[in-house]
Amino acid sequence: MQLMEEKIRTEGKILPGGILKVGSFLNQQIDTGFLRAMGREIARLYGGSGITKVLTIEASGIAIAAAAAMELGVPMLFAKKHKTSNVDGTVYSTVVHSFTHGTDYTVVVSRDYLLPGDTVLLVDDFLANGAALRGLVELSRQAGATVAGAAIAIEKAFQGGGDALRAAGIRVESLAVIESMDGGTVTFRR
Amino acid sequence: MQLMEEKIRTEGKILPGGILKVGSFLNQQIDTGFLRAMGREIARLYGGSGITKVLTIEASGIAIAAAAAMELGVPMLFAKKHKTSNVDGTVYSTVVHSFTHGTDYTVVVSRDYLLPGDTVLLVDDFLANGAALRGLVELSRQAGATVAGAAIAIEKAFQGGGDALRAAGIRVESLAVIESMDGGTVTFRR
Fold this sequence. Notes:
The structure is a homodimer. Chain A is of the alpha/beta class. The first copy, chain A, has helices at residues 2-11, 32-46, 62-72, 131-143, 161-167, and strands at 13-15, 19-21, 29-30, 53-57, 76-82, 91-98, 103-110, 119-127, 146-156, 172-180, 187-188. Chain A has five helices and eleven strands. In chain A, the strands form two sheets. An eight-stranded mixed sheet of chain A has the order 6-7-5-4-8-9-10-11, with helices on both faces. In chain A, strand 8, helix 4 and strand 9 form a beta-alpha-beta unit. The longest helix of chain A has 15 residues, at 32-46. The radius of gyration of chain A is 16 Å and the shape is globular. The A-B interface holds A 23-24, 28-33, 35-36, 53, 58-60, 62-63, 66-67, 69-70, 73-78, 80, 109-110, 112-113 and B 23-24, 28-33, 35-36, 53, 58-60, 62-63, 66-67, 69-70, 73-78, 80, 109-110, 112-113.
């Protein structure tokens, strides 16, 4: 998506340690005209896939997931993060390792909302090592739902998660794929 | 908003302790057609107020805030919750007491995004005792921004927060105002 690459080039900030700050338009302050454009692009990519539900993890994927779900005309669902692994029988749950924070957290989604007949589109703002996305795939598997694929705003290809998921047979569409940020310059995949 | 009252009556579940579960359409699974309608209603209510930014707190207010901001054609911004009060000079921060969980948490928003010239609309899914909303008012005050008012999906009037804020001179518009849930029956304000 050309517009995403332009936004990253003009508004993104690269910090030491491979961190890309996009808080001005994507995951803290959100440019809503751009949000609508992202929703439309995701709906274009997955419009023929029979999606019945969009699934994300709180918090920063929610706006993008909502915009995509509005364009697709389906409900949007978000998995919640728990600090503890104490969950009850009303939810599906799995443990996700955060490489950023060096900790594990549990993600849960209600059994009432993620259903065996669902064809799910997974949406998130960032895809790096892929741990969060694998968590959403696992929740969908537990529910007996079909995963149509994933739509990601920004993929950091140099962290490998996206290509590993593709190699495992999961369709992953990223609106921008960053191959490297070496020397403070963003290089996109062509 | 008639549609909100209907959704609460038909899909809401009342649990002991004054808890209203609306996870099927509002704050876990989100009905996106309804989300768009909420955004339009909020934009209708505040369309003439010169809003420059919509502000919410993660996580369950994000989708509603995004829908409202899309309709108003302005950016949406969310304050983040921190477990600790350790914050640096790049953010505005305040402490919010959660009556639900009996704990305090710190909410922060970047000084880069909430600006003195902003006219802010505060959006959240629930308004009960008003602690979270007062936190957003305080962050806006620190930034020197003007608060045009608040738009809330569901206000529990029997917990008093909304009327206290109105008495303090803040415009509060709730899409449904619940006067009581006694005996498992929802009574709306007329």
